[in-house]
UniProtKB/TrEMBL annotation, chain A:
Residues annotated as signal peptide: none
Protein name: ABC transporter permease subunit
Transmembrane segments: 16-37, 80-106, 118-144, 164-183, 190-211, 247-268
UniProt key word Transmembrane: yes
UniProt keyword terms in alphabetical order: Membrane, Transmembrane, Transmembrane helix
Species per Swiss-Prot/TrEMBL record: Paractinoplanes globisporus
Lineage, broadest ranks: Bacteria, Bacillati, Actinomycetota, Actinomycetes, Micromonosporales
UniProtKB/TrEMBL annotation, chain B:
Protein name (Swiss-Prot/TrEMBL): ABC transporter ATP-binding protein
Cell membrane found in the keyword field: no
Domain annotation ABC transporter: ranges: 9-234
Cleavable signal peptide: none
Family affiliation: Belongs to the ABC transporter superfamily.
Keyword annotations of the record: ATP-binding, Nucleotide-binding, Transport
GO molecular function, one term: ATP binding
Organism in which the protein naturally occurs: Paractinoplanes globisporus
Coiled coil: none
Length: 274, 305
């Protein structure tokens, strides 16, 4: 616990936390605006899926409860990105600023250092989750009211979505620390994680679309292996037609987080620090 | 004394093999408490690798390095036992000096007040709230020493601590390390600055190409290499050379007009000159020079491997 405290102190005593905070707020505002518009489109029936399978999805998404879960988890996309980057930087900055030597001199049992970093990253993740969720609970009922569908806060599905949102933040934080260990270069880690997270989902969607069309239909089921897709799946309010069940998404994310965490810890234990 | 004292550093058949390079090769030596030990060697001799293995940062291929009989990674709260200064530039650029020390205090379970005491010790109190990127190289070295002193350790390990220090800073560090050793602590310092080492160290461990070349008290190492010489200046060089030839001393003329005499003490040379009525302008015993001895000992073993 002493080490988690020290890790949080490290984060607090540099400018990274308020830089990330300043980035997060406008991104949150943009996400909220975007969700408002898309919810409006769904409610007013302007969204058109085209093909029958897609149309069924649109119909499902258009239900007030699904609009609600989407709105009450606003900030997840950008918040997770910030958490992912911060978690990776918690590790890579030690090597970037050559402080790894000092850190491991104070605590030569390196696995405890990495565990403390996981702990600190999770605390940061839950903090970002709490802030975005608080903003959502304040602002979303106003939007729901404007859309004339009630605030839906009585629905257990909404609270489940908020809880799962916390789980998503937490798992992405673990993933970020693990990947930070694997990609030790600060620049490479932030660029790779940032790009893969933002553009990766779209690129993978296209790749899977092509594979599905030209190779085999079953490959489509593997798309859930893309972490961002898994994350979205885990959060979807009710079972959507044509998608794997929600727990598969959770399982995939947990799997990635565990692998990244374990591999990252083992590598750190063995590596020479010079 | 029976067995090693509790604060001795013992390096035992330590070896580090990188892919093709044997950075440290079957190295054994002992560093005693209560003395300053200089750890000397040309660039790339394996000094830093040895210190990093001692501190558990690099895993040895073979052999062990222990402090008071225990490996560094086995020490409970190691910075209360061992203080280390490894790199001058090892702090986050955007963090203040004081916060750098507080971060270490928190991880080690030391009170925050230790950071202020350590800053005071190294004279950095006025710069406590300045960010690390605004520190000069000398200030960075001082911060490193402050970090090493946080846990009031019995053993100090310093890698090139004099780098970047001005003459006043070097003198300050020399006094500090000597005082710490006088309190019975173990002090191991690596350096290239041989003149400084001659002033600072009680013992030396000389390393080249990963192997131990010589270890022992400075005087012994100096004494073992060549006889002492005396520098002589005279306007009657030919007459003096004749006179010194009679007492079997060897004379080698120097480019600056002086001559270096070996095989005779200063008194004998003065007497021979007096007897031969030769005028002397200078008669200086040359103390053993660590630099010369070092260069002789490591000749042919320096350089890039």
């Amino acid at each position: 616990m002493r080490l988690v405290n020290a890790e949080l102190f490290k984060l607090r005593t540099t400018s990274i936390w308020w830089i990330m905070g300043i980035i997060l707020l406008p991104l949150y505002a943009a996400s909220l605006g975007f969700n408002w518009l898309s919810s409006y489109a769904l409610v007013s029936g302007q969204a058109d899926g085209g093909a029958s399978d897609a149309q069924a999805q649109v119909d499902a998404v258009s239900q007030p409860i699904n609009i609600a879960t989407n709105l009450y988890t606003t900030g997840q996309y950008m918040g997770v990105l910030i958490v992912l980057l911060l978690s990776a930087i918690i590790v890579t900055s030690e090597f970037f600023h050559l402080t790894a030597t000092t850190t491991f001199l104070v605590t030569p049992r390196r696995e405890t250092v990495i565990l403390a970093k996981f702990g600190a990253a999770i605390i940061v993740a839950l903090l970002v989750w709490a802030i975005t969720t608080l903003l959502d609970l304040l602002l979303v009922p106003i939007i729901m009211d404007a859309l004339n569908i009630g605030n839906q806060l009585g629905e257990p599905a909404v609270w489940r979505a908020i809880g799962l949102n916390a789980l998503a933040f937490l798992l992405w934080a673990v993933l970020g620390v693990g990947l930070g260990v694997l990609i030790r270069s600060q620049l490479a880690a932030t660029l790779i994680l940032g790009i893969v997270y933002t553009i990766g989902t779209g690129v993978f969607a296209i790749i899977f679309q092509l594979l599905e069309t030209y190779v085999a239909k079953w490959i489509q089921n593997l798309e859930v292996l893309v972490p961002t897709t898994a994350s979205q799946l885990m959060l979807s309010g009710t079972e959507l037609p044509g998608n794997p069940p929600r727990w598969v998404g959770a399982l995939v994310l947990i799997g990635y987080a565990v692998i990244a965490g374990v591999v990252g810890t083992l590598i750190t234990k063995r590596r020479d620090i010079s | 004394m029976t067995g090693p004292a509790t604060d001795d550093i013992v390096v035992d058949h330590l070896t580090k093999q990188y892919k093709k390079l044997r950075a440290v090769d079957d190295l054994s030596f002992t560093v005693r408490s209560g003395r300053v030990t200089g750890f000397l060697g040309p660039n790339g001799a394996g000094k830093t690798t040895t210190l990093r293995m001692l501190l558990g940062l690099v895993t040895p291929t073979a052999g062990t390095a222990t402090i008071g009989g225990r490996k560094y990674v086995e020490l409970h709260d190691p910075i209360r036992h061992v203080g280390a200064v490894l790199e001058a530039s090892s702090a986050h650029r955007g963090r203040t000096g004081r916060n750098h020390l507080r971060m270490i205090c928190r991880a080690a379970g030391l009170p925050d007040s230790r950071s202020d005491e350590a800053l005071e010790l190294v004279g950095l109190t006025p710069a406590a709230k300045r960010k690390f990127k605004g520190y000069s190289l000398g200030m960075r070295q001082r911060l490193g020493i402050a970090a090493a002193m946080l846990g009031d350790p019995r053993v100090l390990v310093l890698d090139e601590p004099a780098n970047g220090l001005d003459p006043e800073g070097i003198r300050w560090m020399r006094d500090l390390l000597k005082a710490l050793a006088a309190e019975g602590r173990t002090v191991l310092v690596s350096s290239h600055l041989l003149g400084e080492m001659q002033l600072l160290a009680d013992d030396v461990v000389i390393l080249a190409a990963g192997k131990l070349i010589r270890q022992g008290p400075v005087e012994d190492v100096l004494g073992s290499m060549g006889a002492a010489q005396v520098r002589v200046r005279t306007p009657q060089a030919a007459e003096l050379t004749d006179a010194l030839g009679k007492i079997n001393a060897t004379v080698s003329p120097q480019p600056d007009g002086t001559m270096l005499v070996s095989g005779a003490e200063a008194a004998a040379i003065g007497h021979a000159a007096f007897a031969a009525s030769v005028e002397l302008h200078e008669l200086t015993p040359e103390r053993g020079d660590l630099e010369q001895v070092f260069l002789q000992l490591t000749a042919g073993m320096a350089g890039i491997r």
